[in-house]
Specification:
By secondary structure, the protein is of the alpha+beta class. A five-stranded mixed beta sheet has the order 2-1-5-3-4. A hairpin with a 2-residue loop joins strand 1 and strand 2. The model has no long low-confidence stretch (mean pLDDT 93).
Length: 65
């Protein structure tokens, strides 16, 4: 399905937010997800359904110096 992720349209085969995170290779990383203006905590991802056209912003953190 087509989703707007971080300002760009992406085709992602997913039914839940957890699957979106996994398909994008971000599972296990510290990620903040905002869907249609609502911040989701990681505990919500597994049960949170996604639908075509959703606007998703993902921020993940990397270490470094």
């Amino acid at each position: 399905m087509k989703l707007m992720i971080n300002g760009g349209e992406r085709e992602v085969d997913a039914r839940t937010m957890a699957e979106v995170i996994d398909r994008l290779g971000l599972s296990g990383k510290p990620v903040v997800a905002e869907v249609n203006g609502h911040v989701l905590v990681a505990e919500e991802w597994e049960a949170f359904p996604v639908s075509p056209g959703m606007v998703i912003e993902l921020v993940h953190f990397v270490g470094g110096g």
